[in-house]
Amino acid sequence: MKFNRKILSCIIVAAMTMPMLMTGCAGTAVETTAPAATAAETTDAAEAAATAAAEETTAAPKEEVTLKMEEFSSSGGNEATLAAMIDAFETAYPYIKVDLQTIGYDDYFTQLQTKVSGGNTADLFELNYENFVAYASAGALYDLNDTIEASGADLSGFYQTALEAYQYEGDQYAIPDSFSNVVLVYNKDLFDQAGISYPTDAWTWADMTAAAETIRALGDDIYGLYRPISFHEFFKASAQNGGSLISEDGTAFTIDTPQNISALTGMIDWVNGSNIMPNEEQLGGMGDWDLFESGRLGMIVTGIWCFGTFKDACDFNWDISVEPGNTQKATHFFSNAYAVSTNCEHPEEALLLAQFLAGSKEATTLRVGASWELPPVTYEDVTAAYLDQSDPENRQAVYDSLEFLITPPVVKQNAELQEIITTYLNKALAGDLTVQEALTQCQAECESKITLG
After folding, report:
1. Residue 187's domain spans which residues?
2. Which of 24, 375, 387, 419 qualifies as a FRET site for 282, CA 20 to 30 Å off?
3. By three-state DSSP, how is residue 123 classified?
């Protein structure tokens, strides 16, 4: 966990430095050299990027290679952006063809586990930070060190701390492609209708709940808040309430503590008590984003990857703020990376693809233009272009949130840990167990089945 905090602190310093570089001593904005691409400009930007990249490649004919690639992070709104990145790559490296399959997050890791067990993983596949150690330690990932050295791959444009996050036992096993966090997104029109002030960075759970109750009173089908009762939201709520799921030294579970009982009790009350948050029946098959886009939800706690979708889908005014905490603030640190399979027959070409999609100026400009998370690169103009975009207006909240980042629990049995905790969260939400019973039983099952340390 000490290593995690070191990584976070370095990323925070680097990310916070970028906005400061955009202003002079008198606060005058520095002109950026690469404006962000809009959705309408995606194709043109890709073609221009590809042309520029193609000029840098050698003209020597090479044997054609087809790489199978699987990923999850573009699912739900960024498929076209990823396709444009791949088009640019294939134009730059015409002897490499990419066979892409995008799988939704809910199904992705279940399918990946099956493919790893069967020895038929894609050449290049995406992992998130919390699952990386499990796959690296299982021998499913190709050690990239020798390929990086032999190919002369230039990784200087990446934050070095982001690269270090995907090292295992000192070797590089994946290339980071993005990082992101979570903010409070709110419907300004509903706040205006309710006659209440917009959220501020000083808000706590109490402020958020009070505002949600006022908005809930606007109508039977209008809700104040959506924050899913899930593994990821629970470990974050635990931190926001001064708790944790695993001890700081990583040797013991701390699931059934008073802080966690209090946090989960409050979350469940939002659904079953005050009903500021809809239950499954009230959602009627709608997703949380769908409800927000319909204009019937005051606030939603969600990731910054929603920006592009909400910009296109919401016909009302909306903005963001730093997510409220209770005894302290805490927000998610999410990061994804591209890993090469040990079954890959063309690791050098797979590394080229990962490096281009994750760190090239061309691909990261497309990513930023689509508001698709944050690229782990040091290009000042790319960072400035991200902040210059509207919708949401307060994009500075994304960078302000970096001060409060926490990482998810990382264990080799990550999938099993999430499944156990999710099972007991659902039992508490359904009323099958009290909150204390659920967390006590969850603690016992984790202790008996999950190895720590």
Report:
1. 182-332+406-449
2. 419
3. coil
